[in-house]
Amino acid sequence: MPFGNLPRNLRELHTNGSMPFAPQNTARQRPERARFAEIIPVVLRFSDGARVSGKLQVVSITGGLLLLQRPLNQGAVAKLMFLTQAGSVLAVAEMLGPVCWELQPFRFVSLCSDDQSRLQKAIGLRLEQLRREQKNQLHDRRELETFRAW
To answer: Is 45 within 8 Å of 78 (Cβ atoms)?
Structure first.
């Protein structure tokens, strides 16, 4: 019997309380992403020596979105370099299919621990800045509502 470990019918599967496989965790949380207030210039350096410059629109620990003059080939791999408040980040990135003529997503293929730490710190700093700004806006709205009641 080649499939002897499988239950004979579905009723057996549901009544004996055992599972023939481990459940997969499909509800993974997406990594936090940041859109920086300042323009972050980016340089892509390809193995043939070609260089392309652009701007970082959005970034997360797994990849991001670049603003380029023209799209690059999907699957192209390059060294990606940019400077954040937390320091410089150097990684190897693979270009994904362009969203439109100027916007192209990428994923990190290789990111050493030091660069990953700097990137996480930069994302954290930006998100904390946004939280403070939102908190201040909420405070200002509450003050405005208090004075409006007069």
So the answer is: yes
Name the region of 136 (left: φ>0; alpha: ψ -120 to 50; beta: rest): alpha
Query: DSSP 3-state helix, strand, coil percentages of the chain (rounded to 5)?
Result: 30, 30, 40
128 phi/psi in degrees, rounded to 5: -65, -40
**Per the domain annotation, does 133 fall within a domain?**
yes
Domain count, the chain: 1
Sequence-ordered list of residues with C-beta below 8 angstroms from that of 48, at least 6 positions apart, any chain: none
Of 19-23, 66-70, 122-126, 128-132, the least confident: 19-23
Distances from the Cα of 98 to the Cα of 50, 66, 127, 142, angstroms: 19, 9, 26, 42
The CATH number of the domain where 113 resides is what?
A: 2.40.10.220
Decide: residue 93, CB within 10 A, 0-12 exposed, 13-18 middle, 19+ buried.
buried
